[in-house]
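Sanity check

After download, print the first record. It should look like this:
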Amino acid sequence: MTPIECARNNIEPVSHDGSSILQKILRYFAISLMIAMALEILVFNFPFWESLLFGNAKEVDWSLGPGLEIQDDRTIKVVDPETAYIEFDADGCRVENLYLDIAVPGWTSSSWRTSTGPYLAIKVLATDEANSSFFELPSYNYCGGMESSKYLRLHLSGVSHKMRVLIQEESGFSFDFRGASINAMRPFCFELIRFGIVALLACALLAFRPSSSLYRTRLFPIRPVVIGCIVALMTVEMAGSVVVSRLSGVVDNPANGPTISGPVAFDFNQYNHLADAFLSGKVSLDLPVSAVLSDMENPYDTSARAQELSQAGEYYYLDYAFYNGHYYSYFGALPALVAFVPFKLLTGRDLRTDQVVLALGVIFICAFNALLYCLAKRYRQDVSLGLFALSSVSFFVASGLLYLVFLPQIYSVPILSGLIVVFLGLSCWISAERLDGDHGGFKKSYLILGSFLIALSLGCRPQYVLVSLLAFPIFWNAIFRERLFFSKKGVGNTASVIAPFILVAIPVMLYNGMRFESVFDFGAAYNLTGSDMTSRGIDLSRSLPALFQYLVQPLSICARYPYVFGVDMAVDFQGYWFYEPYLGGLLPIAPFLLVGLACIPPVFSKSKQGQKAAIIFSLIVASVILFADFQIASITMRYFSDFSWLLILLVFGVLLQTPGFVEGKGVIFRITVALIGLTILLGFWILLSPDRYGALVSTCPSVFYGVAQMLCLV
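Expected structure tokens:
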């Protein structure tokens, strides 16, 4: 593109050496460091500057309430939690803060996840000029290994005379109280992690702000500096995925065996058991089967199963398919064949599922970036580097990847595996058409490989095979105008697309038949879970409440850390309603999708037939998959991954058709950028919610309480 054409399209010409982009990146980086430094010194250390005005610190006399006893070793023991308080004499002073020094004898940290412990729940009761009797302040989590946590900022009315600190622990809990003081000067604390995060956020805000030159820098023709930017972006995404996957510390070590809780055995190493079965020439899993379970008339009756097994002192394996007296894995077998079986053959050991999820998360990032690149190259070569990066980050945060890697268990494996092969398959299809006039048509190798990859989703998560319907909008002109498919001259192309599906479907169907006596039965109905899946059926009355919860259920937000909590999942549906810990619908968590969905009607009316087909088929596939999820399974945020990626692609496809969006101009563009920023914030922040599996308040309190202290400014 010439400079004149660039100016006409408001696109910034870039030198081949990319020096202008590098200069801007370095400038953004320098400015970000300065912003982070200023915030760290002046804002995040405001408690230090404020404490300089409190005057001299004063140690206070204290006494124990009747619920506490001093032991022979001088430790203090809780004997009555209701009156387990330490009382202080404030002596008529204005109390601005309270410093506590508490230790728990014998407490040691097992890992970095608990390095800021011990953790105590305390509550302050105080008197002041407005309250002659004690009144309660909110509960507070004291972290003994975090110095800033020992300073509790108080906002009382005037002077105080008496204060109490209630130790909210169970009877028998012992601790060592080393003293307290009021109006203590807080130490200046330069948090390197906080500084780095703020610098990264500042750099991202500068790079993705609406006026950024990245939106005037073309992605194509591809240049080394552009490749470098994309690689850097993917590296950040991969690093984020790795960090998130390590936070909860969920590790299902095969060597530990199942965890038995009453009549339930929790064993999330299904793929290792399946690998053992395959290596033994079987399809059933070699797991002990309770005789009581085998003799039950309906082993899928959840309450009856639990009652009879409890009485017999036996157990069943949760979330395993049970059929004709044998356990099976209803999860797709492809991950076992590709990863778990080869690993066992090479090492003789089981492969940890969390490590597989981590690897799949990294591959997932590569796969969706490849898909975005192929889409841009095929349909919008005028797209900017900034828009590509924006779509990539949106995909990273809103596609459900963070949920899947945060809890790296077996449930994430088939979903990530299926989406990876789907993304790569679609990339092949999109890249299959020859665009040069002399050699028109399609590269059959790309058609075959694309179909083969998408068909492999049958061996991961079968509903993903519906993505094959996107072949119609992808090859729209070739099918309906040029007749290069479903015609005599297009027989080769047609066979190249269809044959791989048949090739993959045959062994999958045979595998189904060997397990469940039906080539079309994947076994999900025989899952021993929280409800009888064999009797669930399709009930259209589920649709409205399920659509509400999946798509528009508002977040439950309050003014107490971590601010986002589990939502109320009550419905009027008069039937069994199964759901997992839930924080909100897809649209409230990824609000930028609302802008694109709202733009569909005006864009649709002006689109060509192929573009209309892309919108229609994307909505159809996403809707059918979503319908299958809530009708056949349950309500869980994990299933966002099944359909959210289709909506993300649809939304960006629509937005790119709105006036000014490609050029980085207009109200819609600015609103979208702002909402993507909000989506990124929400995507990471909800990881802190205590109402989810693997909640950090229990699995990684050093991060949970560390974030609270980093943001505690008053």
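If your output differs, re-run the checksum step. Summary of this record's structure: The chain has a mean pLDDT of 92.
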